Amino acid sequence: GRNQFALLSMPRHVKRRAGTQLRKSVDKRTGLQSRLHLIRVASRGRIVQLCHMKKKTVETQFGSLVLNESDGAITRLTWGIAEEEADSDVLEEAARQLRAYDAGELEAFDLPLRVTGSAFQQAVCAEMQLIPFGETITYGDIAKRLSAPAQAVGGACGGNPIAIIIPCHRVMGAKGLTGFSGAGGVETKVSLLRHERAGGFLI
Q1: Is the pTM for the entire model greater than 0.85?
Q2: CA 115 to chain centre
């Protein structure tokens, strides 16, 4: 039939009509397999672009972390073990920086990132990236900067796709500590803040 394949970052109204397929490809340089995520869209179009999703597991004191890379940018960080380990220059550098952060040798990440989601989600993630190591701000602080409700900011913080690297753990509620979407919940958030020696979490 008439189908096209498009990027995962396509508009939501298009995604709802889409079916996802998984294929495998082999990296000619490394010989490693990586999953090829394709989204089929009912359309008169043609094959537009194929989106390679490569993953790499990094062991840290905060748990096993899985880095996701697509087209030269980190797109996700989750807890767990990658189903298939892949390799790339971006993944290697991201893993190196995560290990350095874990060892207390790095305070600011310098990586190509791509945040999928709404413009508001991207704006909140951009604000979180500005929070310095070892400091915290509130949802209300970000809300004022973006002229948005604090509750909406909280939702966007919870939807942060690249935890730790985009430091949603540095955002607090008006009355103090709030939840964390990563594995371990609030305990992991406290561990990250103690690691950074953030005020009030030094014990």
Answers
A1: no
A2: 7
Torsion of CA 145, 149, 188, 130, to 10 degrees: -10
**Per-residue pLDDT tens digits for 104-131:** 999 999 999 999 999 999 999 999 999 9
From CA 173, how far away is CA 177, in angstroms rounded? 6
Which residue from 23, 109, 21, 24 is spatially nearest to 58, judged by alpha carbons? 109
Residue 199 has pLDDT above 90, yes or no: no
* 190 and 177 Cβ atoms separated by less than 8 Å: yes
Instruction: Return all residues near 14 (Cβ < 8 A) that are at least 6 apart.
Output: 6, 41
Q: 125 catalytic, yes or no?
A: no
Query: Residue 196: pLDDT band by 50, 70, 90 thresholds?
Result: very high
Say how far apart CA 178 and CA 23 lie, in whole Å: 39
Q: Given 51, 125, 157, 168, which residue is catalytic?
A: 168
Give Cα separations from 62 to 2, 54, 191, 194 (angstroms): 46, 22, 7, 12
Contact 122, 115 (CB under 8 A): yes
Torsion of Cα atoms, 132 then 133 then 135 then 136, to 10°: 80
